[in-house]
Write a structure and sequence with these properties.
The chain is of the alpha/beta class and 335 residues long. The protein contains 12 helices and 12 strands.
């Protein structure tokens, strides 16, 4: 979702009077509400056979499609990967025009503006190629995440209630969770990094969702130094406010990495089972990527050179070395 914001921003600039409707999973409402300049409304996606993100709510699919057809859409835009499943679904929206990606190993859809799904490149940039194919000027690939006063108020209340004392740039956020277990660096290695940073006088804050509290607890238990376990029922906005004040972030290849990129907070991202070319932030001075050379997608001809490959796995000393190369965040000068 964060990687799609540059494409939505470019569309809004090209069509300032258009009504832009986002078809997305229920959790996206919280995020979409932060971008009223780009998104006018959200229609809940009930899932669809063949898409893994949500178990299809089959009883709701007919009403969902009937609702979209009734809107008499001018354009239905597919920003969901190669379109193997989503392009046939897109055709059911009843829009006057269609646009999207298609799998270059299969046939191109007969109707609409469809371009081959790029096999290389950062996710946000891939999505911008489709917008350009529509004749839209789209050169700004920056991620963004606005923080509201309510987010800061929530964070202050949480800090007060939990007894946290956090000074900007005097703490680091370590996010050991990820939705898929194969993407999670071991808790004991996060703990070793946390102990090394605590030994340098930095406060360690462990972040995560309520469902990830067991992971952050395992990291805290493995540390010799005390850490703040901030995993729990915290909104995305409050988490962003917390991260914005951090000196830097250490995390797995997960959504928090994109949030750090959007906030311009320095980070070290550990890749264990993904494609760094697609998902690693583009600002390689501010965001350092480490990847397991054996488990991650291997470097391919034409792919951007991303981060540092670690033979035999990623270890705490690798992360600490990358931390030493991070720039000082802007707010650190005033701390």
């Amino acid at each position: 979702m964060l990687c799609a914001i540059p494409a939505l921003r470019a569309l809004r600039a090209a069509y300032p009077d258009a009504r832009i409707t986002l078809v997305a999973l229920p959790w996206s409402r919280q995020l979409a509400a932060r971008y009223p300049r780009y998104i006018d409304e959200v229609v809940e996606f009930p899932g669809y056979p063949g898409l893994p993100e949500r178990e299809p709510q089959r009883h709701a699919i007919p009403d969902f499609l009937r609702d979209l057809r009734g809107r008499e859409l001018d354009l239905a835009l597919q920003l969901h990967g190669s379109g193997r499943v989503t392009n046939p679904l897109l055709a059911l929206f009843g829009a006057r025009s269609l646009a999207g990606f298609y799998d270059p190993s299969s046939s191109k859809p007969a109707d609409g503006t469809f371009i081959p799904w790029p096999l290389l490149g950062y996710e946000a940039e891939r999505l911008l190629t489709l917008v350009r194919a529509l004749g839209v000027e789209a050169s700004d690939g920056r991620l963004e995440f606005p923080i509201h006063h309510g987010d800061e108020a929530e964070l202050r209340a949480l800090a007060h209630g939990s007894g946290w004392r956090l000074e900007p740039s005097r703490y680091v956020c370590i996010h050991p969770g990820a939705r898929h277990a194969v993407k999670r660096w071991p808790p004991d290695r996060f703990a070793a990094v946390g102990d090394a940073l605590a030994g340098r006088g930095l406060r360690v804050v462990l972040t995560g969702t309520a469902a990830e509290s067991a992971i952050t607890a395992a990291v805290a238990a493995a540390m010799r130094h005390p850490a703040i376990n901030a995993a729990g029922p915290m909104s995305l906005g409050a988490l962003a406010a917390l991260m914005r004040g951090a000196r830097f972030v250490v995390c797995n290849d997960t959504g928090v990495s994109h949030l750090a990129a959007a906030l311009r907070v320095p980070s070290v991202v550990v890749f264990l089972a993904a494609d760094p070319d697609r998902w690693a932030p583009t600002d390689e001075a501010r965001h350092r990527a480490l990847y397991d050379a054996e488990s991650c997608v291997p470097h391919r001809e034409g792919a951007r050179t991303v981060g540092r490959a670690c033979e035999g796995g990623v270890f705490p000393e690798d992360v600490l070395e990358e931390i030493s190369l991070l720039p000082t965040p802007e707010h650190a000068h005033a701390a």
